[in-house]
Design brief:
Elements: E1 8-19, E2 27-38, E3 42-46, H1 53-60, E4 68-73, E5 76-77, H2 84-93, E6 94-97, H3 111-122, H4 128-141, H5 158-170, E7 176-180, H6 188-205, E8 208-213, H7 216-222, E9 225-230, E10 233-239, H8 240-245, H9 250-257, H10 264-269, E11 288-293, E12 296-300, H11 302-321
Parallel strand pairs: 3-8, 3-9, 6-7, 7-8
Antiparallel strand pairs: 1-2, 1-4, 4-5, 9-10, 10-12, 11-12
Length: 322
């Protein structure tokens, strides 16, 4: 159920993405995925490598074609064939921050051109002076000096290069940003700086984020709601703290159990859960997407729904007694 008091900026309905043209080569990367993102929130999408999370982000950005389902931005369908005017509008309003700050920047171009690329594409500046002013502001917004505009990407550290990537997205004045594992290629000491920068920019500019990651400890710090994806299907979705406190699906529990604990003694004692898909008995009773409690969804069949409800009740009783 959607919150009637909040504005939905993006909605994904029964999304399907396939790779390979021939039937025998066909690979389903995203299978019947649905979720919505409220304006101003940070929505997290987590899962292991190859689960389909980046493909979803690229489908929203129109970088990969969809085989089925709908992607709605502010109520308007944006996947499939669209008008040139809408395409231009989406280029400005939806931006992406890529995972590898070195691979996503043109090594032969100066920072001035890299950050301006989007402006050149949609001619979103009055004259050369206006363009340079916008580049300076975008660099300052991400904590870089305007004189950096005359340098090349190889002259910067990983954290600085990622800031250049963020500036390239910000200069378009977007409403919605897809951050595809924006800190996974960075040193641990730099990660917090980039996360704090993203949070600061969200507050100042009213941005909405789709934050794609595989590191759950990071996701807990930055997201409002969280969806867990496994092999192209979302298996659980809830408010971030609710998901961390009451994980229901075995895959979610396995991911959470793998989070490192900073205390070496506790780390040795912790019980690591391993997800085995054969634990589900879906032959006679297939799973369905269920709202198990308000704003907490899980992929489960009737037998699992009963088990999850009991677990939630037990958790509430223990919470009251504790």
């Amino acid at each position: 159920m959607k919150d009637p008091n909040k504005e939905v900026i993006l909605e994904v309905k029964n999304l399907r993405v396939e790779f390979g043209k021939k039937r025998k080569d066909k690979f389903v990367a995203v299978d019947d995925v649905s979720f919505h993102i409220y304006k101003g929130e940070t929505f997290g999408l987590v899962g292991e490598s190859g689960s389909g999370k980046t493909t979803i982000g690229r489908a929203i950005c129109r970088l990969v074609e969809t085989a089925g389902g709908d992607i709605l931005f502010k109520g308007q369908r944006i996947n499939g064939k669209i008008s040139k005017e809408l395409d231009k509008e989406l280029t400005r309003k939806i931006q992406m921050i890529f995972q590898d700050p070195m691979a996503s920047l043109n090594e032969r171009a100066k920072v001035d051109y890299i950050v301006s690329e989007g402006l050149y594409n949609i001619k979103n500046y009055k004259d050369e002076e206006d363009r340079k002013t916008k580049v300076e502001k975008a660099l300052l917004d991400v904590g870089l000096l305007p004189e950096f505009a005359s340098r090349f990407p190889h002259e910067f550290s990983g954290g600085q290069r990622q800031r250049i990537g963020i500036a390239r997205a910000l200069i378009m004045e977007p409403e919605f940003i897809i951050a595809d594992e924006p800190i996974s290629a960075l040193d641990v000491s730099i990660r917090a700086q980039v996360l704090n920068l993203l949070s600061k920019l969200q507050r100042e500019k009213g941005l909405t984020y789709l934050f794609i990651a595989h590191d759950l400890s990071v996701v807990r710090f930055i997201t409002d709601r969280l969806a867990v994806i496994h092999k192209g299907k979302i298996v659980e979705l809830a408010e971030t703290e609710k998901l961390f406190n009451n994980p229901l699906h075995p895959y979610t529990r396995a991911l959470l159990s793998a989070i490192p604990i900073p205390d070496p003694i506790l780390e040795k004692q912790k019980l690591l859960e391993v997800y085995d898909p054969s634990c589900h008995n879906y032959e006679k009773d297939p799973p369905r997407w269920v709202e198990i409690e308000p704003e907490h969804f899980v992929l489960a069949n009737d037998e699992e729904i009963e088990e999850y409800k009991k677990r939630l009740e037990k958790g509430k009783v223990e919470g009251l007694n504790g």
